[in-house]
């Protein structure tokens, strides 16, 4: 009896998993053979963005603004300074105000690519961190604390690309490497209690943030791009029919 019940429940669960879950009906779709396919997609994304920002319970998708990041580990290596930077319990604010400027879709055989030009006026991130730094082979700092970063005028071309398999888009490449117009960084304690050093380091970081950001971008963006690739696959594209979403 129990076994039958268990099998029944397991069947129901697996059925719901393999079934198509639709995007909310207010998300409009665009016909790929239409003349205005690109501008239609841009408008569809811009108009439905508030829905994605709230999170979509039917897809189990969490909200994007504020966006919670429980854990993210970054390795950095810059001019002989290397280390690990772990972000914990961070919240990011600002994605709600994303503006989508243009969208370039490309269907090529069984692969699909989207390039999306976007602007985000401000992003504010705050949370906890733990870091471990090295200069050459010397450990110089192992510390933890709180941080916040405010950024303005972010611009990027977001690229998503991958094959369509069994009517699901499998995003293999997710690339988001924004240019940032302005950045201000604050951290409670970068040198394990040494306030003078912390102040000096923050002054230095805020003066040279542009060089530091550009230097760290290739490694740090790998971490968030992998994170976002898994995010869009898990919460969106593995659940919705490709042919119905991009008819
Ligand atoms: C970041 O945190 C510090 C310390 O709590 C605070 O003084 C500062 O105003 C914060 N930055 C922003 C942009 O809120």
Give a structural overview.
Helix content is 33%, strand content 41%. The longest helix has 29 residues. The termini are far apart. 11% of the residues are buried. The protein is elongated and about 60 Å long. Strands 1, 2, 3, 4, 5, 6, 7 and 8 form an eight-stranded antiparallel β-sheet that branches. By secondary structure, the protein is an alpha+beta fold. The structure holds 2-acetamido-2-deoxy-beta-D-glucopyranose. 2-acetamido-2-deoxy-beta-D-glucopyranose binds next to strand 5. The site of 2-acetamido-2-deoxy-beta-D-glucopyranose has 3 residues, from strand 5.
- Helix/strand/pairing category: alpha+beta
Mean pLDDT equals 86
Q: Catalogue the ligands.
A: 2-acetamido-2-deoxy-beta-D-glucopyranose
Distance between the termini: 45 Å
SS field, number of helical segments: 5
Assembly category: single chain
Order of helices and strands: HHEEEEEEEEHHH
> What summary fits the major beta sheet?
8 strands, antiparallel
What is the CA-atom radius of gyration, in angstroms? 21 Å
Q: Using DSSP, what is the number of strands?
A: 8
**Unreliably modeled segments:** 10-18
What percent of the residues sit in helical stretches (DSSP H or I)? 25-40%
Strand content: 35-45%
How are the elements arranged and paired?
Blueprint: H1 2-18, H2 37-54, E1 67-78, E2 81-93, E3 99-108, E4 111-135, E5 138-165, E6 168-169, E7 173-175, E8 179-187, H3 195-207, H4 209-237, H5 242-245
């Amino acid at each position: 009896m129990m076994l039958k019940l268990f099998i029944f429940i397991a069947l129901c669960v697996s059925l719901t998993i393999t079934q198509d879950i639709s995007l909310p009906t207010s998300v409009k779709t665009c016909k790929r053979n239409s003349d205005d396919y690109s501008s239609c997609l841009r408008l569809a994304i811009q108009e439905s963005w508030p829905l994605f920002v709230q999170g979509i319970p039917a897809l189990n998708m969490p909200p994007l603004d504020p966006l919670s990041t429980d854990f993210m580990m970054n390795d950095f290596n810059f001019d002989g300074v290397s280390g690990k930077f772990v972000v914990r319990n961070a919240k990011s604010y600002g994605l709600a105000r994303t503006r989508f400027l243009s969208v370039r879709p490309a269907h090529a055989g069984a692969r699909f690519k989207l390039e999306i030009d976007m602007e985000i006026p401000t992003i504010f991130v705050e949370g906890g961190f733990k870091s471990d730094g090295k200069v050459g082979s010397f450990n110089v700092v192992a510390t933890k604390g709180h941080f916040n970063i405010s950024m303005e005028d972010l611009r990027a071309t977001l690229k998503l690309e991958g094959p369509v398999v069994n009517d699901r888009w499998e995003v293999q490449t997710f690339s988001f490497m924004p240019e940032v117009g302005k950045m201000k960084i604050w951290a409670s304690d970068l040198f394990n209690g040494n306030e003078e050093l912390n102040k000096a380091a923050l002054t230095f970081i805020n003066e040279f943030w542009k060089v530091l950001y550009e230097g760290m971008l290739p490694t740090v963006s790998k971490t968030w791009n992998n994170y976002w690739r898994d995010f869009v696959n898990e919460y969106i594209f593995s659940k919705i029919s490709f042919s119905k979403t991009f008819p």
